[in-house]
Every structure is written in C-alpha cells, then in structure tokens.
Design goal:
The protein has 840 residues and is of the alpha+beta class. The protein contains 18 helices and 33 strands.
Length: 840
C-alpha cells in the first residue's frame, strides 16, 4: 500500500492541542510560509494570509480576492487548433494588514526582537486571529503588543484589525504606522527592495512546479484612484489586461488616555496613517483599523470607492464589538450544522475543526464565484477553480451549508455559455466546462491533463443532482440549472459512439480520467461510469419535469430546442455504456489499455523522486501502470451502488499499490473505500494523511495555500467513510465503519431542511433531529424514519468480514419506529422530489 509520506504525520506537528483553535507559542522562521497559510483569515471572498502584523519578514505576503485575476497570452511551443489561448492568475491586492510599531524610535521586528512571551491563536469559534507578544526593547523596556485580525463572514467586504500597545514599566515615545501597501511597486518605509510581481509569489523561486502560480513580470495593478479623508484612505486599481477593478479602503480610530497626534501620507501605492503617542507606563493604546475590499469585472473604481465608503461607514457606526458579536453568532450557527466530533481523540478533533474552519473561509461568502483550489489563502494553481469544488467540497456544503452549495453551482451555471463555446471549439455539441478557470474560459495549457478531462462535465452534473436530491431544491433546476444537465448530456451523446461487437455498446474514447499519470485513453472507467450517471440523470430530470412541472418543461424545451429523441438517446447510451472488466483478474481496468502497460514498482522509487511529475518526463510516466490519484477507486465511491462488494475489494486491492498519492485529492477517497472494504487500519492511515496534509506540510507545498479539496474531503472521510453515509439516487443509507481505536463519532447532515445528528459508536448508531421534522434512512438494510423529538437507535450487528456499505436488500421488511416497533410500509425517497403542483 503506497502512501506519499511514510511515518506518522503527528511527528511533524509543533502546535499545542486545543480542540477549538490553532495555537503557536514559539515564533519560527523555519516554516514561515506554511504558517502564513495555516493562520489565514478569510470568508470566501477576501483572504488575508497569516503574516505578522508588522509586515516585515515573510515568505508570501498576500491578500487575495476570489475571482480577481489578470490575464496573459499562453504561448505554446507548437500551436494547434483549439488550444487554450488566455491564461489567468489570481492577483495579490494591496495589503491592509500592516501595522508597524516603534518604541523610542526602535522598530518592532519580530524575528529580531527579544521576545519574552509569544502566543498566536486562530480561534475557530470567534473567527479571529489573535497574537500576544511581550517584547523587551533594546533599552530594556517591556512592551505588551496584542492584536486581533478578523475577516467578516457577515459583511462580505469587511475586515477588522485591533492593535493594542502597552508599555508596562516605563514611559515611552510610541509610533504606530498603519498602512495600505501595494507590494507590486515602490519601496516601503524601510527601503526594502521592491517585490517583482509574478501573480502572487516571488519571482525566481527555485524548482519547477506546475502547481504554483504563473509568473508575470509586468505591472498588473494600474493606479486609478487615491483618496484620503481624515483617517480614511482609499486606493483603486485596474488590472492591465483583464480590465478588472479593485478598491481597498482603510479607516482608523484610536482609544487611549495618552497624548497623541496623527500624521498622514498618500501615494499611488502606499497610504499611511501614523499615530505618535506619548505613552505613560501601563496606559494602553488601542488602534482599530477597519478594512474594505471591493472588486468588479469592470465597474469604475470611483463607484467601487463609494461602495467601500458605505462598508466603512457601517462598520464605524456599529463598532468593532458588534462586528465581533456577529462573527461569533455566524460561526455558532456554522458549527451547529457542520461540526464533527471525534470522541476521545483531541489531536484529531483539533485538526478536523481546523479543516472545517478553512472550508468555511474558502466558501462561505464566495457568493456566486467559484471556490478555488486554494480558496483565498494563497496563489497555488493560480487561484483557479477545478473539479475539486464539485467532488470534494460540494458534498459537505450540500449537507451542511446548502446556500453555499447553491451559490457554487450558480457559478457553473453562469459560465454555461462559455462551456458551450468551448464544446464548439472541440467540435462537440452541448457544453464542455473548462478544466481550470477563473473567468469561465479554459486556462489549461496542457490539454492532455487538462481539456481531455472531459469528466468535469459529469462531475458538475453529479454535484447538481446530489444537491437537489439532498435539499429538494427543484426550484433551482427549473430556474435554469436543468440546462447544465441537458447540455452536458448532449456533449456525452456526441462525444461517445456506438460499436457492435456481439452487442451494441456505447464507448467514449480520447479522454483523461482523474489519474493525470494516464492520459488520453479509451473507455476510462471513471469517465464512462460518471458519464452514464450524467446521461441517466439528465433523462430522468427532463421526464420528471414533463410529468410534474409541465410549464417549466415547455419553457426548457423551447429554450434549449430539446427534442424527445435526444432524451431517448441519452437513456439508451446510459444503458449501453461500456464498462470495462477483466475476467482473468476480476477487476475493472482503469481504461481499455491500462493493463497492457508495464507495472511501476513504487517500492523502488524513493521520496526524493516524488512527486513523479516533478522528476520524470510525462512520456515516461504514461508508459506505466502508475496512478497519481484515485481513479477507479473514486468511481467506487461516487457510483458505489453500481458495483458489488467483491468488485470493490478486488479493485481496491489492485489499484492501491499502484497509487502514489502525489495528489492530495487521493487520500480521502482511498480512506473511504478502504473503510468500506474492511481495511480499517489502512483507512485510518489514509485519513490521517489527508487530515494533516497542511498542518504537517506533508506535501511540502502548504506555503502556496490551503488544500481546500482536502479540507472538504475530510468531512467526506468522516461522514461517508467512518460514518458510513451514502446517498445514491436520493436514498440515504448509513453503514458505519468506525476505527477500532475510536470511541465514537458524531456528525450532522441536513436533508430537506431537517438537520439530523448521527452518533456512531462501536455498538450502535443513533439518529436525532436537531432542527426540522423527519428524514428516512436505511441502516444496513433496515429502513427507519427519524422524527423531531424521537431519536432512533439501531444496534450494529457484527457481520464478520462484511464488505459493503452500499444500500442492500433489507432482511427486515418495513420501517423501524423510535420505540423499536416495525411499520409495514416503508417511506422511500423519490430521486427527484419535484412538487406535483410546481409549474402548473
């Protein structure tokens, strides 16, 4: 069984255990890039990396806005028709975090300071990053420096920084310089050399790594506006090529019993407000800095500046305490519906909550934008949106924060026209969504591992149908989201073809599956299985609309020029989809030719040669049976009701030793299926690798940003893996696979607006409605209905070598009541819960 990083990830942790916070008690420069990522604060729209307040040392100083990007021409070594033409990369916006401190004209520079006490804390319940430092100045004075940084989940555009300074044992002359600094140009007040802008990371970084942001040597943000009114400053810019606009604003208040005066300074790239204070011993100085960011695809900066003023005015009228109160209330509600409790495992519990908190910071206020692979925590992958969202992030959002899930799907719907154009460029009907994008246009320059991953269409369709089945939000379908299903089904019907060889089968050739170490193949199993689901769900939805919402159906047919013959073709193709299977090995080949390749012996590939993509030419990798990330195994999860228990174990046994784990997307999937097929210890090992991938920097690239797909995947590993939840075609089943070393697990799912807590122990599983009415489940074949005020407990029988967590035929007819009696009529869920009255 191959895992990228051998050993226990806990050995690489240096953070004290706090189940509701990430805490650092010793400042270190050794892992500065990683901790800048780990201590990020954000809300899905704006993210501030965890740089120290004073803005001195740092590996990647960054503040990022979701979707704000620059474009650049992709230059291919050899051109070909249909290649992506325009690259996109996230922009590092003016940094409002900086507050610099001088005591008797001596600068506070943390890496050089005589630090007597240090504590930094990212609190998952308050949603704030706090820091407390006791500094002894060169002259021997003791100064307490405390700060609190927050990006609001309630007010999408607002950030607040509170900076407190107290000279404990002496009077002193204090200067606090609050800045808004555009790092692309200019020299800061310490005459540090300018940072060459490259899309967010320092140019010339050693080594080749395609996962990092592309380098841009020209200035990106062109000054368009600068304004200072009192203690408020506004800087506005326009991106050189993309034309996107951004405005950053800062405002200040000071609270102290000391005498003070203020100075101001404003240039195109630097706004500076300085408080000079005659500090008395023991008298605190508090500066509250409110921050506002607004961006647009082309709205003039003067209008964005007006919006910024309204944000800052509102913050000033409400005060910091009110903003903090709203933040805590928002997070209280978030944890009430999202928290996963791992009983008796404090280290795991802390890491689980850090992952779930990062998920909120990447998605909560994306509000119709995509959810980037790194969220708003760094520049990795250029700030692009991938299939990570639909397969790894949307499941947890669908079951815990359905509004955020709906918004993410709305983004895909908003770029549907781009997807239609892209399909046409590739001579296909329907729509082909971009493999990686920000604007909606394909930005992947390497088509073999980019555009060829047609499965993204099916991934988006899967997420959409999963969302509708779990929420009952058919209004979203009828208002236009059904178009996604129709256009993706059209693409598959056109891309695939019929071949008769003892029977008509439907084949899909020339595609790349999730495994990017095997490209442009025929009949990739994952692609075929997911395309089959896409075709089938599109046909079922169209038919359901025709029967249950005829008016909406008529509008959709007219809008899309849809004919019944197309729908019939989709269902026929789905039924006849070729699913490769090798009788001799008893497994599903990853693709039609995969088993013909030479096996790569990963036991002879040392860690210094990993990941393979950084040490071997693609042609070398493509010749072998070696897998970057779960491919067939992922199909076993997403379409698990289409495989037998024996097939799942055989497939897992074959592919797991071939999987490098070079992708952080892999561990979560391998953990879930390992748990399902009975490999409990291996499941836990994979889970721990995924859980600590950033906290322990297992892939040595956490400095580039949080692996957001992994954070979402951790919820899936807990709920779908150890918790045993499955949701195939709207039927919700639970078959737990709790590790033997765990006492219990509690997680929550919201289905049809009813939130249910599921408590799993080694002996039983209990369902409790926390909010709402009732939800039907099946537990190892026994149907139950859990209702408000009536928890249901089901004993978990030991089935020996039981393999399957998929829905199975019940040995008990009917439905279990809370009191243990049996109801003779079960309560099945229809796959598409469309109201009979809707649209009529």
């Amino acid at each position: 069984m191959s895992i990228l990083n051998a050993g226990d990830p806990l050995d690489r942790l240096r953070f004290p255990v706090d189940e509701w916070a990430l805490v650092e008690t010793t400042p270190s420069s050794d892992d500065m890039g990683s901790t800048e990522t780990l201590f990020t604060v954000g809300n899905g729209y704006v993210g501030m990396r965890g740089n120290m307040d004073e803005g001195r040392a740092g590996q990647m100083h960054g503040t990022f806005i979701n979707g704000l990007h620059e474009t650049w021409p992709i230059r291919h070594a050899e051109e070909a028709f249909g290649f992506a033409r325009v690259g996109q990369t996230i922009v590092n916006v003016p940094d409002a975090k900086i507050i610099r401190l001088y005591v008797d004209d001596e600068p506070f520079i943390l890496p050089e300071a005589d630090v007597l006490e240090f504590n930094r804390r990212l609190d998952f319940r308050d949603g704030a990053l706090t820091r407390c430092v006791l500094w002894r100045t060169p002259s021997g004075k003791k100064v307490m420096v405390e700060s609190r940084r927050m990006v609001s989940f309630v007010d999408r555009h607002l950030g607040v920084i509170v900076y407190d300074v107290t000279v404990l044992d002496s009077d002193a002359s204090i200067a606090i310089s609050s800045q808004l600094f555009n790092r692309q140009d200019g020299i800061d007040e310490f005459d540090q050399p300018p940072v060459e802008f490259d899309g967010g990371r320092a140019a010339g970084k050693a080594g080749f790594d395609p996962r990092q942001a592309e380098s841009l040597s020209e200035r990106v943000l062109q000054p368009r506006l600068k304004r200072a009114v009192g203690s408020r400053y506004t800087l506005g810019y326009r991106c050189t090529n993309s034309g996107m606009t951004v405005v950053a604003g800062i405002d200040h208040t000071i609270d102290t019993d000391n005498e003070w005066e203020q100075l101001t300074s404003l240039t195109d790239d630097l706004a500076k407000h300085v408080y000079e204070v005659k500090a008395k011993a023991g008298r605190r100085i508090r500066v509250v800095k409110t921050v506002s960011y607004h961006s647009s695809r082309g709205v003039p900066t003067r209008e964005l500046a007006d919006r910024s003023d309204r944000t800052l005015d509102r913050a000033a009228s409400e005060g910091y305490e009110q903003a903090a109160k709203h933040q805590r209330e928002w997070l209280d509600a978030y944890w009430a519906r999202t928290d996963v409790e791992v009983h008796g495992q404090p280290v795991v519990q802390q890491a689980v909550r850090w992952n779930l908190f990062q998920l909120a910071q990447a998605s909560a206020r994306a509000d119709g934008q995509g959810i980037a692979a790194k969220g708003v925590s760094g520049t990795g992958y250029g700030g692009h949106y991938f299939w990570d969202t639909e397969i790894f992030v949307l499941p947890v959002l669908t079951y815990t924060s359905p509004i955020a899930a709906r918004n993410a799907l709305r983004f895909r719907h908003s770029i549907l026209e781009h997807a239609r154009v892209r399909a046409s460029e590739l001579n296909q009907l329907g729509a082909l969504f971009p493999w990686r994008t920000i604007s909606g246009e394909e930005s992947s320059a390497y088509y073999a591992a980019g555009t060829a991953q047609y499965h993204i269409d099916a991934d988006i369709a899967f997420a959409l149908t999963q969302y509708v089945a779990a929420t009952g939000d058919t209004d979203f379908l009828t208002r236009g989201a059904v178009d996604i299903l129709v256009e993706t089904a059209r693409m598959w019907a056109d891309l695939g073809f019929w071949r008769s060889n003892g029977g008509d089968r439907f084949h899909i050739h020339g595609v790349t599956g999730p495994d990017e170490y095997t490209t442009v193949v025929n009949d990739n199993l994952y692609t075929n299985v997911m395309a089959r689901a896409n075709l089938r769900s599109a046909a079922l939805v169209v038919e359901a609309l025709r029967e249950r919402a005829p008016v909406d159906h008529e509008h959709m047919v007219a809008r899309l020029s849809l004919e019944q013959a197309e729908v019939d073709e989709w269902m026929a193709a789905a039924e006849a989809m070729f699913i490769p299977f090798d009788d001799a090995l008893g497994i599903h080949p990853q693709d039609a030719q995969f088993l013909e390749k030479e096996l790569w012996d990963l036991s002879k590939t040392g860690p210094e040669q990993r990941p393979l993509l950084l040490h071997y030419h693609p042609l070398v990798i493509y010749r072998f049976q070696v897998i970057k990330q779960a491919d067939v195994v992922l199909a076993l999860l997403l379409q698990g009701d289409k495989f037998t228990a024996e097939e799942k174990r055989s497939d897992f046994d074959y592919y797991d030793p071939l999987t490098t784990g070079d992708s952080t997307l892999s561990a979560v999937v391998q953990s879930i299926i390992a748990a399902e097929v009975g490999y409990s210890e291996l499941a836990l090992k994979y889970f721990m690798d995924g859980l600590f991938v950033d906290l322990a920097d297992l892939h040595k690239n956490s400095a580039d940003g949080v692996h957001i797909a992994s954070t979402g995947g951790m919820w899936s590993a807990l709920a779908f893996g150890f918790g045993g939840l499955r949701d195939h075609e709207g039927r919700f089943t639970v078959d737990p696979r709790l590790p033997e070393s765990w006492r219990g697990l509690s997680y929550r799912v919201t289905i049809f607006a009813t939130r249910v807590r599921i408590d799993v122990s080694q002996a039983e599983v209990t369902f409790t409605v926390e909010e709402g009415t009732s939800v039907p489940f099946a537990v190892r074949g026994v149907d139950i209905v859990v209702a408000s005020g009536a928890p249901v407990t089901v004993a978990l029988e030991h089935h020996g070598d039981r393999l399957s967590g998929a829905p199975s035929t019940s040995d008990v007819e009917g439905t279990l009541r809370a009191d243990g009696s049996i109801i003779t009529a079960s309560v099945p869920l229809s796959w598409l819960p469309v109201s009979e009255e809707h649209g009529e």
